[in-house]
Amino acid sequence: MGEIVLKGVTKRFGDVEVIPPIDLAIHDGEFVVFVGPSGCGKSTLLRLIAGLEDVSGGKIEIDGKDATETAPSDRGLAMVFQSYALYPHMSVKKNIAFPLKMAKLPPAEIEAKVQAAAKVLNLSAYLDRKPGQLSGGQRQRVAIGRAIVRSPEAFLFDEPLSNLDAALRVNMRLEISELHHTLKTTMIYVTHDQVEAMTMADKIVVLQAGRIEQVGSPLELYRTPRNRFVAGFIGSPKMNFIEGAEAAKHGAHAIGIRPEHIRISTTEGMWKGTVGVSEHLGSDTFLHVTTEHGLLNVRAGGEVDLHHGDSVFLSPDMAQLHRFDKEGGALK
Amino acid sequence: MSTQASRTAARLMISPAVILLLGWMIVPLAMTLWFSMQRYNLLMPGMGGFTGFDNYSYFLTDPAFFDAIKNTLVLVLGVLAITTVGGLLLALLLDQPFWGQGIVRVLVIAPFFVMPTVSALVWKNMFMNPVNGVFAHLAKSIGLQPYDFLAQSPLASIVLIVAWQWLPFATLILLTALQSLDSEQLEAAEMDGAGPISRFFYVMLPHLARAITVVILIQTIFLLSTFAEILVTTNGGPGTASTTLTYLVYVQSLLQFDVGSGAAGGIVAVVLANIVAIFLMRMIGKNLEN
Amino acid sequence: MARAVTPRRKALVTVLAWTIGLALFFPILWTVILSFKTEGDAIASPLTVLTTPFTLESYHVVQDRSNYFLHFWNSVVISLGSTLFALVVAIPAAWAMAFVPGPKTKDLLMWMLSTKMMPAVGVLVPIYLLFRDLGLLDSRIGLVVVLMLMNLPIVVWMLYTYFREIPGEILEAARMDGATLKDELIHVLTPMAVPGIASTLLLNVILAWNEAFWTLQLTTSKAAPLTTFIAGYSSPEGLFYAKLSAASTLAIAPILILGWFSQKQLVRGLTFGAVK
């Protein structure tokens, strides 16, 4: 079981309220991602759940029991840190065995569990090495190994992939997702990268300045963002926003249209513009088009023969248009 | 960032050190302050009593006091100048590639580990002695009259001895700092058209600023209490030619048994050191920020 | 810079560096050489000295006359004792400051350093009188206490800079892994902190060994460490070069060797981590 419920949880550092009262329910077996720009309080929230920070108010319940005052190690959670936090003086084997040793398990059982975890994570060949002798990806796997041997109620990940290079990041992303399917344990994952959030999460929690902006599945957030912040944060490349007279035509303060929802034509369309930088990726072509409504990003599928300086016409897909009021809230 | 429990534990763990240092600072200092206002001479028991600031006026108007201040300044500034400039040049030299770097490094650092009494005696007798010292032999061999260093220029000789002890320290720190300079910065400067001298002043020296601050701070702390070198070489003489403030207080209180005026001298030294300290702490505080 | 250096330039630098290095080292080298000569040979002119035979005579005289080993042992007890006591007090303090930093931590550290700036003479009189009244003059325990307090700020600072390099996340990971404070200390912190503690110990033993204000003021004979013992050669014994050299060599050799081993730590330690 790994059900975690936050009830009015707040955190203050001195007089600064970094997390205003938050209510959130995380169900057993869910993969939940906290995402937001740096400094939004997502890591603090994770550390509150872990017990590494005291809450200033509210309650944290784990499996229905109040865990607000429980010591970190008694909450039944395992955490993978951004820096991996491996013990540098211990071998890989000892690192993975450490939580079991602390739980005073018999040596034979520890050995069996470590071997099993090492096998799952492809670490069997490295058990006697020290963390210093491993690559970034291997260290990451040791950190995960140390978390899974305890069979925790839930895993907490604090930006675990941010120290890896791009190719490795994609790999580890898949491995963690695969692990979630195998273990079916609750996972809470913190990242500032919306691509990680979209690809891994069952449920995304978008945070800004300590506040929850929206909670939902990746596609819910993509299709029906509740406000301009979520609309701009989820989706890559970013949504285009247009204000002023053009927005007023649609009865809104601002309208938003995703780059993939704009059709491009050399002959006719709603908005006339000039192509600036064009990025030809083969599978996609991203065009930066200057129009009377400002710079708009457009995603055209496949190979498109348009280049710097070409005149084009853009037409938004009206069904995919997002409308926002003055405060940034979405209009139905 | 931490939990309440760990903060309480932290306070408990820090307190022994704080209490000890507070005790070490405040109790004797208060006693010194008290003695400094008493008539208190170990040779004249029963002659005690409150005298207000008499001890201070006695100590501060003593001609030896001004000599001591002047000598202290000469000693500290002289050693600082020799060691920082010399250390910088030596560090630049040792940073170049050459054969036997490791051995030369060991040779250069060695004087720092020699205890002050030994280095003072070795210099005084085996080098500066006007009859049998190495310098005297050298002078005689080229037909010159041997020079009696400690009698004729006692303070300069002491500066030389102390600088010999501290030059390695300055060199080692500056060398370490120099080696931590990102070589790409120097290459970038070179691509930007900076010659060796510009590179030194615009790239190396700013990089070394922090290390130089540290050298000055640490050395000042230790140099202000230079004692053994004076005791075993000149005993502060001839006259007061090499008496520093530290040495003067020692003479007053433990040689002339005048505890009262010795204590007054101690307080004067504390006040002066604090002026220097405030200045230096600002400097290092700023440098330790980042 | 990974660029080839002309051999001529390298040769020039080599000659210059070795000349300066040998010149700086010469007083020590000369002391060691003279310690193996007879008194008569030791005062001869430098070039003549090198041709005279070696002898261990002076070393015998030094030991016979002044019980060198007593003073050596005093130095060991005083420097090691004061350092160990300082470590016992400083380790918890530095640990707390490094891992549970509060808004006042920096000020506290600066204050500790500032106690080091207080000139020793400022408290010479009361300490001397206190020691006299408590019967601590010329006692090893008295010096251990004074030198411990003297070096405590440096010990705290050094440990603090070493501990600060242990990432806090590791301790949090240990806590998540179910380690109690005791486990954390035994299995995680101590193994990671041992190198730092060792170099702090080494450097402070060196500083205490060479301390020459309080040792000279507070001891005369029975508790006198090597600094005081050597100061006794001031005069007229100082004119006996061979004996002075032998005594000096014995006094500096142990610490010189320790010092060569701890060059790197010296930089880190004495600069409070400000230079690496």
Word description of this protein:
Chain A: GO terms for molecular function: ABC-type maltose transporter activity; ATP binding; ATP hydrolysis activity. Chain A: One of its GO terms (cellular component) is maltose transport complex. Chain A: Belongs to the ABC transporter superfamily. With 332 residues, chain A is α+β, with helices and mostly antiparallel strands. Chain A is built from 9 helices and 19 strands. Chain A folds into 2 domains: 4-231, Rossmann fold, CATH 3.40.50; 237-331, Nucleic acid-binding proteins (OB fold (Dihydrolipoamide Acetyltransferase, E2P)), CATH 2.40.50.140. Helices cover 27% and strands 33% of the residues of chain A. Chain A has a 6-stranded mixed β-sheet with strand order 6-7-8-3-9-10, with helices on both faces. In chain A, a hairpin with a 2-residue loop joins strand 9 (203-208) and strand 10 (211-216). Chain A is globular. The mean pLDDT of chain A is 91. Chain B has 290 residues and is an all-alpha fold. Chain B contains 13 helices and no strands. Chain B has helices spanning 4-36, 54-61, 63-94, 101-109, 116-127, 134-141, 149-152, 154-179, 183-191, 196-223, 228-233, 245-255, 259-289. The radius of gyration of chain B is 24 Å and the shape is flat. The mean pLDDT of chain B is 84. Chain C folds into 2 domains: 7-59, no CATH class; 67-231, MetI-like (MetI-like fold). Chain C has helices at 7-35, 39-42, 46-49, 57-66, 68-99, 105-117, 124-134, 140-164, 168-176, 181-210, 214-218, 226-231, 241-261, 263-270. The model of chain C has no long low-confidence stretch (mean pLDDT 84). Classes of the chains: A alpha+beta (332), B mainly alpha (290), C mainly alpha (276).
What is the CATH architecture annotation of the largest domain in chain C? Orthogonal Bundle
Query: Architecture of chain B, CATH level 2?
Result: Orthogonal Bundle
Rg from Cα of chain C? 23 Å
The two chains with the largest interface, and their residue counts, are: B-C, 109 and 95 residues
Mean pLDDT of chain B: 84
* E-strand count of chain B: 0
Features:
heterotrimer, A: 332 residues, alpha+beta, Rossmann fold, OB fold (Dihydrolipoamide Acetyltransferase, E2P), 2 domains, six-stranded mixed β-sheet, five-stranded antiparallel β-sheet, 9 helices, 27% helix, 33% strand, C: 276 residues, mainly alpha, MetI-like fold, 14 helices, ATP-binding (chain A), Sorbitol ABC transporter ATP-binding protein /mannitol ABC transporter ATP-binding protein (chain A), nucleotide-binding (chain A), ATP binding (chain A), transport (chain A)
